[in-house]
Design brief:
CATH topology of the largest domain: D-amino Acid Aminotransferase, Chain A, domain 1
Number of strands: 22
Structural class: alpha+beta
Number of domains: 3
CATH architecture of the largest domain: 2-Layer Sandwich
Helix content: 25-40%
CATH class of the largest domain: Alpha Beta
CATH superfamily of the largest domain: ATP-grasp fold, B domain
Oligomer: single chain
Radius of gyration: 21 Å
Strand content: 25-35%
Number of helices: 11
Bound molecules: adenosine-5'-triphosphate, magnesium ion
Distance between the termini: 44 Å
Shape: globular
């Protein structure tokens, strides 16, 4: 019997998940704040609501009576999830996981204080006074993030700059964080700046009827709080990888539930640090669309959600993904360069078909693969170069 699945958030990650679920015979209702969102284009039905509005959420849940609710984004009134879970709906991976990860404080305290995972030093502040004290205590440079935000919104690094007094930099950082906070929740985390050599995502799959599985680690590079390219596998020592897996098993088990999780770590000279996690497919995991694994991250999520077996996760090829970002506002964009880019072997372009552009919005991704023994850095460079050849035509 198929399940009725409500997907909250209908971006490019949701779209791939819907395709994976469709292939397993499921019924999906895709939800977002605007119509014609990527996942809606491939779902059975859709709803357009403000997902931070509890009443609007209740209304569509009552209307469709889904068996399973799958959050694709963070900006949802996740407190509602506990109630849905009590009423017998499965929330993926669990109401607790979705609710905790919406707020950096909940997840950081769980990781650091309760589970003892190694993280950057951190303090919270909810007034400018507290903020100044926190910055002094953590030290400069430090990273400032609103507790409720994603994709780098409201984030800044406080560091010395000879042309500006440090007090001005600190004030600016506070204002920027306040402006970038989601909703009425005005609190920030001040983190020690971690001088990492690289950062990775460890895709972790928790299963109802099986053990916790790990995908080969994914390397990525971030700019302006968003990922630009990712590659798999990435360089990591056996010791760091083992620690990452242990930390991932611990935190996913504490948060409970079944599905795929993207767990982010920093690799440093002083060992590996837990950074943050998302209880859903991860954007850097789009590299698995290059056919790097026997099952991509969306197929893994779909199986885990449905309690279907995952006998193994195997790296078949090395691969890379590089994003195509919009530069300005527009609607109904078209794309140039496919003819050129697709002359390359082992290369695919995934256009998300978003109905509108705005500066820095992710519109497409180029994925490339090569044999498992080839040099992943070369594949990465190829993906980056090819992503530059996809041109967005604004109208
Ligand atoms: N303490 C830190 N030290 C050094 N760099 C950091 C630190 N915290 C974050 N960064 C950098 O900023 C990036 C974004 O941070 P983080 O993942 O916490 O934010 P986010 O808004 O949740 O991002 P997303 O939602 O896109 O994953 C990290 O991937 C890393 O490159
Ligand atoms: Mg992140």
């Amino acid at each position: 019997m198929h399940k009725k699945i409500m997907l909250l958030g209908s971006g490019e990650l949701g779209k791939e998940l819907v395709i994976a679920l469709q292939r397993l015979g499921q019924y999906v209702i895709a939800v977002d704040s605007y119509s014609d969102a990527p996942a809606m284009q491939v779902a059975h039905d859709f709803e357009v609501i403000n997902m931070l509005d509890a009443e609007a959420l209740d209304a569509i849940v009552n209307k469709h009576k889904p068996d399973i609710i799958v959050p694709e984004i963070e900006a949802i009134r996740t407190e509602q999830f506990y109630k849905y879970e009590k009423s017998g709906i499965t929330v993926v991976p669990s109401a607790k996981a979705a609710n905790f990860t919406m707020n950096r404080k909940a997840i950081r305290d769980l990781a650091s204080k309760e589970l003892g995972l190694k993280t950057a030093k951190y303090l919270y502040a909810s007034t400018l006074e507290e903020f100044k004290m926190a910055v002094a205590e953590i030290g400069i440079p430090c990273v400032v993030k609103p507790l409720m935000s994603s994709s780098g919104k409201g984030q800044s690094i406080i560091k010395e700059d000879p042309s500006t007094p440090i007090s001005v930099i600190i004030d600016k950082s506070w204002i920027y964080a306040m402006e970038g906070s989601r909703g009425d929740y005005k609190e920030v985390i001040v983190e020690e700046f971690v001088k990492f050599n690289s950062e990775i995502t460890l895709l972790t799959v928790t299963q109802k009827n099986g053990e916790t599985l790990f995908c080969p680690p994914i390397g990525h590079r971030q700019e302006r709080g968003d990922y630009r390219e990712s590659w798999q596998p990435c360089a990591i020592s056996d010791k760091d990888l083992k620690e990452a897996q242990e930390m991932s098993a611990k935190i996913t088990s504490a948060l409970s539930g079944f599905g795929i999780w993207g767990i982010e770590f920093f690799l440093t000279d002083k060992g590996i640090y837990f950074s943050e996690l998302s209880p859903r497919p991860h954007d850097t995991g789009m590299v698995t669309l290059a056919g790097t694994q026997n099952l991509n991250e969306f197929e893994l999520h779909a199986r885990a959600i449905l309690g279907l077996p995952i006998p193994n996760i195997e790296l078949l090829r090395c691969g890379a993904s590089a994003v195509v970002l919009a530069q300005k506002d527009g609607s109904r964009p078209s794309y140039k360069g496919l003819e050129q880019v697709l002359t390359n072997k082992n290369t695919e372009v995934k256009i998300f078909n978003k109905p509108a552009t705005r500066p820095y919005r992710r519109m497409a991704v180029v994925v490339c693969n090569d044999s498992i023994t080839s040099n992943v850095d070369i594949v990465k460079e190829k993906a980056i170069q090819l992503s530059k050849q996809i041109e967005i035509i604004y109208s």
